[in-house]
Amino acid sequence: MRICWFNEDRLGVVQDGVVIDVTDALKALPAPRYPNRVGDLVLAHLDALRAAIEELPSGAPTYPVQKVRLLSPVANPGKIVGVPVNYQKHVEEAAADVATFTRRETGSVLEQGFFLKASSSLIGCSQAVRISMPERLTHHEIELAAVIGKKASNVVQADALSYVAGYTIALDMTVRGAEDRSLRKSVDTYSVLGPWLVTADEIADPQRLGLRLQVNGEDRQVANTSEMLVYIAEQISWVTRFYTLEPGDIIMTGTCEGVGPVVPGDLIRAEIELIGSMEVAVAASTPLAR
């Protein structure tokens, strides 16, 4: 199933190029209560939601995908976990250009561990990446995102993928500089998810997916998730040794070689096999209100 949030926080299912409005199925979810310690309600109760969607009567409103405004397919993540330099050619790319990547970013994920991105940086693909620091480089990074569906702590690698609710395309946008990654990658609009969440049952092997990113129609990043240094199951096991993952938490599983700059006016097209593609505009930051 392909699940999306669209327009004014409507819930949709995508089929054959059409978005079916299934917002009424949200009635199957338990009412939110304070404090909410279960994570994102949709991801925490995905099985019940899917059953409610399948029981909806026919005749729900439908819209062409091209005519709706796609929001982030994860509405309320508690954490966005970043996996740095997780492809060997990207390791080599960073080592060959220390002036851009800095010495603190050389070496693979095995040496550097993970980092966190602020959830406030998250947008959907119909929203623009806004360049708030035009005096510095902003780079694109295409990644497969794994979205957690149930509470996970000290997970063994053999069971790790069973904690994934689904997968989506991610852009881990990055301001280059010497500061910690969690600062430079948490700029507003610098985490993009889309175009929808594909439930895990539709992707038999997330480690055999082709990735492609273009800027203004030109290939920049082309790779396959089989080239990861640390596979997704190992990532989940490793992360959950340090902190608990909750439903709706996002793991951006690492980018491949070919990262490069974008500027206002550019158009990014990101594609991952079995998920789909999305186009994301790059724009100048909106002026601060006075």
Structure, described:
The chain has helices spanning 41-44, 46-55, 88-96, 98-101, 109-112, 181-184, 232-242; strands at 2-6, 10-15, 18-21, 62-64, 80-82, 115-117, 122-124, 129-131, 138-140, 142-148, 164-172, 174-175, 191-199, 210-215, 218-224, 250-252, 260-261, 267-272, 276-284. A hairpin with a 3-residue loop joins strand 1 (2-6) and strand 2. With 290 residues, the chain is α+β, with helices and mostly antiparallel strands. It contains seven helices and 19 strands. The model has no long low-confidence stretch (mean pLDDT 94).
Write a compact overview of the structure shown:
This protein has 290 residues and is α+β, with helices and mostly antiparallel strands. Helices cover 16% and strands 32% of the residues.
